[in-house]
């Protein structure tokens, strides 16, 4: 089995399909993460309760974190390998034509750049929140981390808000093209459904961008 598997993952189609599956799974994580973050609107106790329940169950937390790391790394590695493979395979003239805009969109042409920005954002996001300032609060007689305060303090800086929104705009461009192209890579390519898939990709991108951006804007005006 190792021979055929290695041949599949080494092929262009195999790499694209791995990117498609991991990308769609990460899109599912984005929606779940956004839904959880929206609990922020209900106040400190509600958000800290949600965050505590999410992080206190180590039996589920560690496998989930490992799974996310594997998804991100698989997606990034395949993206780098495909980009390098495409640059080596196509002549310079074709490359210049593609970059000029014919047959391509801003979202598709900027995929490597938006992907890099998202990676930088993820690293800084973990530094600021998961490993950021640690405060404690009481919930039903139990001492838990006050992640609500950490988050609200972070978004009191206009520069942090601007950076966050910029990253979410880049994320929107990335998933707009990625969501649609994932289905293409998996064989869902039919004139009857292509327009609907493109519309769904746009709606998904707008939901993610506006949803996360609204949270940091609300936190900024809400204050600590």
Description:
By secondary structure, the protein is mainly alpha-helical. Helices cover 81% and strands 4% of the residues. It has a two-stranded antiparallel ribbon with strand order 1-2. It is globular, with a radius of gyration of 20 Å. It starts with a helix and ends with a helix. The relative contact order is 0.13.
Q: Main beta sheet: strand number and arrangement?
A: 2 strands, antiparallel
The N- and C-terminal alpha carbons lie at a distance of 57 Å
Averaged pLDDT, please?
85
Topology as H/E string? HHHHHHHEEHHH
Rg from alpha-carbon coordinates: 20 Å
Strand order of the largest sheet: 1-2
Low-confidence stretches: 93-102
Q: Output the structural class.
A: mainly alpha
Indicate the proportion of strand residues. Answer: under 5%
Query: Into which percent range does the helicity of residues fall?
Result: over 70%
Number of helices: 10
Number of spatially distinct domains: 1
Gross geometry: globular
> How many strands in all?
2
Structure, briefly:
The chain is mostly helical and 224 residues long. Helix content is 81%, strand content 4%. Helix 2 packs across helix 4 and helix 2 crosses helix 9.
Chain-wise SSE layout:
Blueprint: H1 2-10, H2 12-37, H3 44-56, H4 58-89, H5 92-100, H6 106-109, H7 111-130, E1 136-139, E2 142-145, H8 147-154, H9 158-185, H10 191-222
Antiparallel strand pairs: 1-2
Helix pairs in contact: 1-2, 2-4, 2-9, 2-10, 7-9, 9-10
Provide keyphrases for this structure.
single chain; 224 residues; mainly alpha; two-stranded antiparallel sheet; 2 strands
């Amino acid at each position: 089995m190792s021979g055929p598997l290695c041949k599949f993952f080494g092929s262009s189609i195999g790499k694209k399909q791995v990117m498609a599956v991991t990308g769609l799974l990460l899109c599912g994580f984005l929606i779940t993460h956004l839904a959880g973050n929206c609990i922020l609107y209900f106040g400190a106790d509600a958000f800290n309760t949600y965050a505590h329940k999410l992080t206190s169950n180590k039996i589920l937390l560690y496998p989930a974190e490992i799974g996310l790391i594997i998804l991100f790394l698989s997606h990034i590695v395949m993206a780098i390998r495909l980009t390098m493979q495409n640059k080596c395979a196509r002549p310079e003239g074709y490359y210049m034509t593609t970059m000029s805009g014919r047959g391509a969109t801003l979202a598709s042409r900027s995929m490597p750049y938006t992907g890099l920005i998202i990676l930088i954002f993820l690293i800084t996001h973990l530094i600021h929140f998961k490993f950021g300032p640690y405060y404690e609060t009481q919930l039903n007689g139990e001492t838990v981390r006050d992640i609500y305060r950490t988050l609200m303090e972070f978004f009191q800086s206009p520069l942090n808000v601007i950076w966050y929104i910029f990253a979410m705009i880049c994320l929107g461009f990335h998933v707009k093209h990625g969501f649609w192209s994932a289905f293409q890579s998996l064989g869902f390519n039919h004139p009857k459904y292509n327009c609907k898939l493109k519309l769904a990709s746009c709606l998904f991108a707008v939901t993610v961008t506006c949803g996360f951006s609204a949270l940091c804007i609300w936190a900024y005006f809400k204050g600590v």
